[in-house]
Every structure is written in C-alpha cells, then in structure tokens.
Design brief:
The protein has 199 residues and is α+β, with helices and mostly antiparallel strands. 30% of the residues lie in helices and 15% in strands. It is built from three helices and nine strands. A three-stranded antiparallel β-sheet has the order 1-3-2. The protein has a two-stranded antiparallel ribbon with strand order 4-5. Helix 2 packs antiparallel against helix 3. The longest helix has 31 residues. 16% of the residues are buried.
C-alpha cells in the first residue's frame, strides 16, 4: 500500500492529538482504552470511574471539588499526580468525614490530652479519658475534690434518712386534729428543711 499526503496528515494528526484508531489494539498506553468521542474519533481514556491517564489509578480529576466524590470527600491530588477522594483536613471516616480522628484509643490526632474514641455511628471523636474533665486539657479530679464530693453525697443521704426516721413515726402518732402541744415537731421539721436548703 502506497501512503499519500492525506495518509501522512492523518497519522501526524492522530499522533499529535493523542487519539487512536477505533477498533485498533495496542495504541493506548498504561490502562487507557480507545474510546469514541462525541466528534466520532478515537481517544485514549481511562476506564469508567478511574482518572489520571495513562495509569488511571485515581478516583477523580477535578482537584478541590466534590462532585466526583462520595459523601463529604474532596478530590485531592496525590504526589503521583492522580486524584483521590479524601476527607477534608481535620476530618476522618470517609465518605461522611464527620470524625475528629480515626486511630481509636490513640492521642496523636487529638489536641491536648484527649483520646480518639469511637462513637456508636462508627467515626472517631476526641474525648477526655475516664475520670478527667475539660477537653482538651482533660484535668484529673484531685483526691480532695473526689473526697469532698463523696462526703457531701453521703452526708445528704444520711440527713434524708434521719429526716425520714424523725418525721414518719411522728406522722403516724398524730391524731386527726393535732393538739397545740406538737409545735415542737413542727419546729424540728422546719429546722431540718432549712438545714437542707443551706447544704
């Protein structure tokens, strides 16, 4: 077959535009495939849902945008040049990307002394360890604070028991119309009630 000027022009154009001959084999590099364009000629493109020819390893190719990615992930350019759908900075757990962290039980993704804790929904949140409060510092409750809290709780419980022990028997002894001589009982009840208010 003799090649004329028209054939040479077609071959040069094919080479310069990166297109391919539909139905031909071995014309595309990497994982690309010869696909027909809307204009009717062949072009080496990545298979569906892959991007970044010729390797075609990526999830997306619109860097910084979300329309090619699921959930709240964003198209991020990798050092290799293709795009991956990743969570925005300081979020974890694709595709929702709701969490503060994804290394459960560790602290390197969390601020201060907080620890990465898995929520019932499956993503990680930075929380204070047990028996500490006030993220991100997560200060430990002092022994004096624990002791005071415990003592106060015990005192209030005991006071209520004493109050019940005093009042219930007196109520059972009261006749339908209490005589004026029981004003002492009223004063005891009033005293206990006032005492509870000040605690």
């Amino acid at each position: 077959m003799v090649l004329g000027p028209g054939h040479l022009l077609f071959i040069v154009t094919l080479h310069l535009t990166g297109t391919c001959d539909l139905g031909g084999t071995g014309q595309c590099g990497g994982k690309t495939q010869c696909t027909e364009t809307p204009q009717g000629f062949g072009e080496c493109t990545c298979p569906e849902n892959t991007y970044g020819p010729p390797e075609c390893l990526g999830d997306c190719d619109k860097f910084g945008e979300t329309d090619q990615c699921k959930g709240n992930t964003v198209c991020t350019k990798t050092p290799q040049g293709y795009g991956l759908c990743t969570c925005p900075a300081n979020t974890y757990g694709p595709p929702e990307c709701l969490g503060d962290c994804d290394k459960f039980g560790e602290t390197d993704q969390c601020k201060g002394n907080t620890v990465c804790t898995q929520t019932p929904q499956g993503y990680g949140v930075c929380t204070c360890p047990e028996n500490t409060y006030g993220p991100p510092e997560c200060l430990v409750m002092s022994i004096a604070e624990i002791s005071t809290t415990t003592t106060t709780e015990h005192f209030l419980r005991n006071l209520l028991l004493i109050y019940g022990a005093l009042v219930i028997p007196l109520l059972l002894l009261l006749p339908a119309a209490p005589p004026p001589s029981l004003t002492f009982t009223d004063s005891v009840i009033s005293f206990v009630e006032d005492w509870i208010k000040y605690i």
